[in-house]
Amino acid sequence: MHATPSALASRTITLLLLLLALHSIGSEIATAQPPRRAAPAPIEPHAADIQMFPEPPSNITQHLTQIPHGKLEIIEYQSKTVGTTRRMNVYTPPGYSSEKKYPVLYLLHGIGGDETEWQRYADPANLLDNLFAAEQATPMIVVMPNGRAQKNDRAEGNVFAAAPAFATFEQDLLNDVIPAIESNYSVHTDRDHRGIAGLSMGGGQSLNFAFANPDKFAWLAAFSAAPNTRSPDQLIPAGKLTDNPFHLIWLSCGSRDDLLGISQRTQRCLRQQQLPHIWNLDGHAHDPTHWKHNLWHFARLVFNKQATTASLGFHASPTLAPEITCEQKFPQHLQGICCDGHSMFWSFTTRLVKTDLQGKILKTVPVADHHGDLCHHNGKVFVAVNLGKFNDPAGNADSWVFAYDAASLRELARHPVPEVVHGAGGIAVRNGNFFVVGGLPDAVAENYVYECC
Ligand code: FER
Q1: pLDDT at residue number 316
Q2: CA-CA distance, 450 to 453, in Å (whole number)?
Q3: What is residue 392's predicted lDDT score, i.e. its pLDDT?
Q4: Is the minimum distance from the CB of 131 to ligand 1 under 6 angstroms?
Q5: Mean pLDDT across the chain
Q6: pLDDT tens digits for 346-375?
Q7: Residue 210 has pLDDT above 70, yes or no
Q8: How far is the CA of 148 from the centre of ligand 1 (A)?
Q9: 227 C-alpha to center of ligand 1: Å?
Q10: Beta-strand relationship, 278-282 and 219-223
Q11: Is residue 227 within 6 Å of ligand 1 at its C-beta?
């Protein structure tokens, strides 16, 4: 059960290529149906093609009676663009008051949806109420308009025939929706306090509109963007952007989504143009679970520059990594750190510690001597543990991988790794496989990376 790093690398690449071959078969079947436009097939994988953010807990949209709730209301506005009275769904946070000013997130639906789709798919009202109650998101107004800017804007008949109306919506949004919101609600009206996000067609709209109007939007998310997304050379013409105009670009897609190629080509373009972004490729399909989960993660960052900078630092590029100081000192030394996008986990030999991305202590638990390096995977923290002697030639390391619940730091399981005879020095996770680096006593010349658990 051990392998050299190069053998592991080639095994990982083979697995990725196999997965991508399966994706392309899926997308050929899906795009064979007219009148859908063909989506480009998924393209060559690279190291960033991973699930950056874990699956959220299962209760993120649970209605809790003991917390304050926001309000959802359908309001009407006059659209000069369409020449009709149109409807949008507006969420105001708990305790909404005209004494305060709020940032606004414009949240756009998919090709078969309307102004009620987000509420049906992802229950943003309860999702946000719960985040605000836990102080995990910045209070905001969420506007869910109808992105099909035409006289009959119901999702009827061949929904693909309305694709041009989704492009026309740019004018409706800028000239009709935003002014209506800004004159009826107590909101900030600068770009720093305006975000745009959407699923599928709405994801394509968000990318197209934000890149065409960076003076209007500073926060951007596209969840499983559809083929209405402009091609990279149209979306970001070379040399057009001198600076990164966005505080956050969130791009996500499910690995089982037939439209994956759209997000991938957009992500490659952002990477090439060195635009810091978050790319979260989870295991879902073109489905409400992906949209709900990614809205939840995005909602925790949007309008919060500090949390976003920290999260981008971890996920976009090591050069952006912020300095994070743990606010408390612990005996013995720091063995390793890891991050789940919103929190940091620190292994201090005999103490496991969780902080926010500003270093504020959220939880500490005493643990057995000694807990070494650690990594995060899907809501759990895995720690390389040696209960015996590290770097001991006699092989008395007594090596384990301990698993903890990332929310509570409650111990969940202990996996023995007796192969790691000189101790478990480092641990990492990649595509659900764990890699443990062995210890190396003075007299031993060859070290191993072990794939385990
Ligand atoms: C297409 C395939 C899917 C397309 C749009 C979609 C405009 C949109 C899907 C959705 O919004 O869920 O070819 O072309």
Answers
A1: 61
A2: 10
A3: 85
A4: no
A5: 88
A6: 999 999 999 988 899 999 999 999 999 999
A7: yes
A8: 13
A9: 6
A10: unpaired
A11: yes
**Token output for 210:** 């934000």
438 contacts 397 by C-beta, under 8 angstroms: no
- Order of strands across the sheet with 411-416? 336-339, 343-347, 349-356, 361-377, 380-386, 399-405, 411-416
- For residue 213, the CA-to-ligand 1 centroid distance in Å is 23
268's tokens: 């490659």
- Number of Cβ within 10 Å of residue 242's Cβ equals 6
Q: Looking at this protein, which amino acid is placed at residue 176?
A: D
Residue 320's pLDDT is what? 54
Tens digits of per-residue pLDDT, 56-86? 999 999 999 999 999 999 999 999 999 999 9
Token pair 């638990």 in the structure block, residue:
365
One DSSP character per residue, 8-74 reads HHHHHHHHHHHHHHHHHHHHHHHHTSTTSPPPPPP----TT-S--SPPPPTTTT---TTS---EEEE
Q: Which domains does the chain have, with CATH numbers?
A: 5-25+323-452 (2.130.10.10), 71-315 (3.40.50.1820)
Per-residue pLDDT for 275 more than 70? Answer: yes
- Asked if residue 36 has its Cβ within 6 Å of ligand 1, the reply is yes
Ligand 1 binding pocket includes 200 (Cβ within 6 Å): yes
